[in-house]
Each structure stands twice: as structure tokens, then as C-alpha cells.
Amino acid sequence: MTRATAAIGGEVAGRVGTGTPDATPSFAGVASWYGPRHHGKPTASGAGYDMWALTAAHPSLPMGTRLRVTHSATGRSVVVTVNDRGPHTGGRILDLSWRAARDLGVLRSGLAMVVAQAVPDETVRVSVPPGSRKAPARPLHPPPADGSLLAGGYATFGKAGQP
Question: Where in the numbering of this chain does the RlpA-like protein double-psi beta-barrel domain appear (predicted)?
Fold first, then answer.
């Protein structure tokens, strides 16, 4: 039994993340999300929290475990990587990043019943549509809902454009 299987609490043939499991562990429950307030703060893995990344917090799964998280009501799913510990509120099984919650359609409700299943690394594929170019840069923060424009300034006049 792998550490991920033990953390989930089930006997499973095969190993998580090897690409050769006969069955992969899964668990179900309530997921929540955390967002802009935590952006850039350190996670349990040591990396800064990136609200735009597809990540999740779990209380005991090994860091780097990949999970396919499926919204039970809608069938939408995303693949996330465990990089933090949590949730820190009882009765929840995962804390999703802002982007994972957005992609699952749970930003407004805040909570969702989900099924999470460990995913071998080899089964995750990223596809780029034909004719597309490099992915656009993502902003540090989501755009304001009211459509306003954020502007910045320089502490020293004449330093604009200089490294």
C-alpha cells in the first residue's frame, strides 16, 4: 500500500503515480476553496500559493499527489496537484485553489460535493489547440468585477521603464 493509498484509507492494487495501477484510490466529500487573500503566501510544500494554478490542500496525502476532482452535481472535473495542508475547517476533504474552484463552477457557492481520485502522472495530458500560440500571461490578481482599471506609479520620478 502506498502512502497516498494509506492516507485515503483503502487497500488498492497498484501504486499511485506510477501509471500502472489496477485501481486507483478515491474518496468523496465536501470541498471548499481559498483564493486572493492567500495568493503568494507559503504553502506546506514550501511553494507560494498561486491562485491561478490547479492545486489543492489535503490533510495527509503526499505532496505532489495528483487528483482528478469531479463536481458530483455537474460532472465537471479538473486535475489538481496537492501542494498544501488543509482544509482547516471540519467536515471538508479538500481546499481547492481559486482556479480549480472556478473551473469546477463552485466559486459562488463556496462548497461542493466532490469525488477525488488519484491520477497516475502519465494519464494527465495537456493539449494545445492547433494554430494557438504561447498561453497568455496571467495577471497576478483577477480583474476587478466592476470593470475598473488598476493603475500604479513609481516611487522615483524618471525611473519608469528602467530595471
Answer: 27-114
Q: Is 54 among the domain residues?
A: yes
Task: Tell me the C-alpha distance between 58 and 67, whole Å.
Answer: 10
150: in domain:
no
Separation CA 8–CA 133 (nearest Å)? 39
Domain with 102 in it:
3-123
- 155: number of Cβ within 10 Å: 5
Dist. CA 72–CA 67, nearest whole Å: 15
pLDDT at 53: 96
If we measure between CA atoms, which residue out of 58, 14, 10, 11 comes closest to residue 34?
58
Handedness of CA 28, 104, 37, 146 (dihedral sign): negative
Q: Which domain CATH number covers 74?
A: 2.40.40.10
